[in-house]
Amino acid sequence: MDEQQSASRAARAPGPDGLCEATLLRTLPEVLPAGLVAISPDARFGLSGGGSGPARLWDLTTGTLLRELGVDGAGCSGLWTDGRKVVASGDGKIIQATMKGWVSRFDTRNPQNLHPMSRGPHHDRSTGASSDRGAVVVGADGRFALGICMDRALRMWDLTDGACVRTLRGHAVWPNAVWLAPDARRAVSAGADGEIRVWDLDGGTCAVFPHPDSWVDSVCLSADGRRVLVGGDHRGHTMWLIDAVTGEFVRGFEDVRDPASLEDPEDRSGEVLAVRLTSDGRFAVSGEDDGRIRIRETSTGRCVRTLDGHTEDARGIALTPDDRFLLSGSSDGTLRLWQLGWGL
């Protein structure tokens, strides 16, 4: 049995409450810290980046590095792929490429494209990974990108021609995180002051939810638009749900931190760095600073599965639309491809 098969067997185990098993299919040596990851819907291709080097496109079936997409050495702030095209952003530029090699790029600092994108206010110089893990996010069809800009506004670009089609203002401090719904009709952003904003991009309205006692690292919106999943710190919770209409606190999730760390408000161990919801909204997936990926029920808050393997922060996670495959990236310089079995 080779090393890859041994790792897969070790990672496979039955899980309770709907999650049958999780299998580690492959570990890829990224070399650089991977704070950002993206996966194609069929799980054939993956993207990694977020450090000081280029974005990398991988064949996940073989573990082969296919190509690199340079972003002028400034590191990546956003990644996306649908298996036919890839998008990488960084240092104020958005690069698009097809699998056949065609490449286009545009500079968001061009006067026609308005303001430059931000790398985020909390750039981690020790690992080279952006704490935002998504200063630019792309809709499911690859047409629109939404980015955090240097003037604290969010801007949406049409990737067919690079035109800025929306400017969203309101954050008084730097946004820490941004999320764009797959249909590009709704978005969520969170400021360093804990304020969460839910944007209706069609109607031009915005719901504002102040949370002055919170710290937010990552956000995502449920498929039905009713809930926002937040990772960070809120009254002792490292991950929580809020109502997307009222902003009311819905539920916290099971905390796995050492009880001793809860006594020290400056102790950020156990921090949730990245969050995703499954397509049916029943499970929340988180990448955490102990290197583990955890899956929790949204109905109870209970942790039902833990994926071990990364030895440092699990800063990037991406799910395929059918929730069957998960790609994770870590400060340890590896990518891990997981297959999830759901007994629903």
What does this structure look like?
It is a single chain. With 344 residues, the chain is mainly beta. The chain has a single domain (21-342), classed as Methylamine Dehydrogenase, Chain H, CATH 2.130.10. It has one helix and 30 strands. It has one helix at 3-11, and strands spanning 19-29, 36-39, 45-49, 55-59, 64-69, 78-81, 85-90, 93-98, 103-107, 123-124, 129-130, 136-138, 144-148, 154-158, 163-168, 175-180, 186-191, 196-200, 205-209, 214-221, 227-234, 237-243, 249-252, 272-277, 283-288, 293-297, 303-307, 314-319, 325-330, 334-342. The strands form eight sheets. It has a four-stranded antiparallel beta sheet. Strands 2-3-4-5 form a four-stranded antiparallel beta sheet, with no helix packed on it. Strand 22 (237-243) and strand 23 form a beta hairpin. The longest helix has 9 residues, at 3-11. The protein is globular and about 45 Å long. The protein starts with a helix and ends with a strand. Mean pLDDT is 80; it is low at 1-16 and 113-134.
Helix content: under 10%
Q: For this entry, what is the oligomeric state of its chains?
A: single chain
Query: What is the CATH architecture descriptor?
Result: 7 Propeller
CATH superfamily: YVTN repeat-like/Quinoprotein amine dehydrogenase
- Number of domain modules: 1
Span from first to last CA? 32 Å
Share in β-strands = over 45%
Order of strands, main sheet, comes to: 1-30-29-28
Q: How confident overall, as mean pLDDT?
A: 80
